[in-house]
Amino acid sequence: MAQRETWASRVGFILAAVGSAVGLGNIWRFPYMTAEYGGAAFLVVYLIAAFGIGLPAMLAEFAIGRKAKKNVINAFEGIGYPAWQIIGLLGLVTGFWILSYYSVVGGWVIQYVIGTVQGAYFGNPEAYFGSISTGTSTIVFHAVFMALTVGIVALGVEDGIEAATKLMVPSILVILAGLAVWGSTLPGAMEGFEYFLNPNFDALMSNLDTIIPFAVGQAFFSLSLGMGVMITYASYLGKDDNLGMDGSLIVILNTSVGVLAGLVVFPLLYAQGVDPGSAGAGAVFISMATAFAELPGGTVIGLIFFLVVLVAALSSAISLLEVVVSYAVDNYAIGRLPATAALGLVIFLLGLPSAMSLDTFGLYDTVANSLLLPLGVTLIVTFVGWVFAGGAIEELRQGTDGLGSLGPAWLWHVRTVVLVAVVGTLALSFMEFL
Asked: What is the phi/psi pair of residue 299, to 5°?
């Protein structure tokens, strides 16, 4: 068997993990979920979920991955718990499932990049989205996006994923920050900031049962938890990396991108009098296209925005594909290139129903967000908190001068607060799904 690949640097790992976390989850999904579930009220719950639940759960995945040095399924056998491989299988299936429809959105983004240059959506943004969101052109660009993803992953961990994300992630941060500063100068921008940053706590408390499952699910989605990514990425780490520090940086950077996306999207919408509460997967595309069509210099700003979204989409897609490629390369006598190409084709085929129907697309997203991700995280924190507890703390101590009381504190937080939160979220999500 070929020697297992590793990250060339700690920075490379952090940027790759941030790239996985950033993606469409923050720039596409986060703004429309925020708009659909109460603006700043959703933001408050999301931030609590990201740091109070997401970060401890991420460290649990890191501990499994680095200890095992194996892919998401074999990792559990590698640390002596083969019966728990079902968690890895669920993570692999979840990543496979999400990438199938995520690639469809990636195809939308490519069409918006082209449409901005051509001015194709300026006359009627809503009709343009309707024309590109399903059908033949959607299938074609779904294929194009998957081909781009396959090309990067086929190059390997260091030459493909790490090299790509070292360029992608800083570009996303810089350009989004620039767009946010520019958006703050627009008339009506303050109303957008008010909507996004000033929560109505009465509305929050009266709608907690609705907001919580979607905010926690969004935290899992945007942090790439429960889908095998962080276990896989951590398996390429060395023992001298400080997992706690790395995880904290990843969550901070990821959350910063989400907030920056909101600071771009909502001022733009209010500047043009567009209702941010337009729900649905196409809301951000339609709303942002409407704003760009009306703004002076909208072609240039729109092109920059959608290019950033495309880069973010690719940075996440490569992490999802790497989960299944890692398993194939570790377990079968197959090279990275043919494995990546074959798996990319299967994922493309799985995504075809989403490319042909927005109702099916919505079902795929709901199954992932409301069932697969909460279930995966629930099983992971149960395993780490109550089965692999000693090994997890030992792994977190590697690369530090000793955790002291922080190790047991983290463990009991995972065993109690995080576990109760994810089980509660799973129950609420299941009832919402029904």
From this structure: -65, -45
Q: How far apart are CA 48 and CA 60, in angstroms?
A: 18
Judged by phi (left if over 0) then psi (alpha if -120 to 50, else beta), residue 398 lies in beta
| The residue type at 403 | L
Three-state SS annotation for the chain: CCCCCCCCCHHHHHHHHHHHHHHHHHHHHHHHHHHHCCCHHHHHHHHHHHHHHHHHHHHHHHHHHHHHCCCCCHHHHHCCCHHHHHHHHHHHHHHHHHHHHHHHHHHHHHHHHHHHHHCCCCCCHHHHHHHHCCCHHHHHHHHHHHHHHHHHHHCCHHHHHHHHHHHHHHHHHHHHHHHHHHHCCCCCHHHHHHHHHCCCHHHHHHCHHHHHHHHHHHHHHHCCCCCCHHHHHHCCCCCCCCHHHHHHHHHHHHHHHHHHHHHHHHHHHHHCCCCCCCCCCCHHHHHHHHHHHHCCCHHHHHHHHHHHHHHHHHHHHHHHHHHHHHHHHHHCCCCHHHHHHHHHHHHHHHHHHHHHCHHHHHHHHHHHHHHHHHHHHHHHHHHHHHCCHHHHHHHHHCCCCCCCCHHHHHHHHHHHHHHHHHHHHHHHHHHHHC
| Beta carbons within 8 Å of 403's beta carbon, 6+ residues apart | 244, 393, 396, 397, 410
The one-letter amino acid at 205: M
Note the pTM of the prediction, 2 decimals: 0.87
Per-residue pLDDT of the chain in tens (434 residues, 90 and over written 9): 455 556 656 676 777 666 666 666 777 778 777 877 778 888 899 999 999 999 999 999 999 999 998 889 999 999 999 999 999 999 999 989 999 999 999 999 999 999 999 989 888 888 899 999 999 999 999 999 999 999 988 887 666 666 766 777 777 788 888 888 888 888 888 988 898 888 888 877 887 777 888 788 888 878 888 888 889 888 888 787 888 888 888 898 888 888 888 888 888 878 777 776 654 556 668 777 877 887 778 788 888 888 888 887 887 888 889 889 989 988 888 888 999 999 999 999 999 999 999 999 989 988 888 889 889 999 999 999 999 999 999 998 887 766 667 888 999 999 999 999 889 888 877 776 66
Residue 187 burial (CB < 10 Å; 0-12/13-18/19+)? Answer: exposed
71 within 8 A of 235, measured Cβ to Cβ: yes
Would you say how long the chain is, in residues? 434
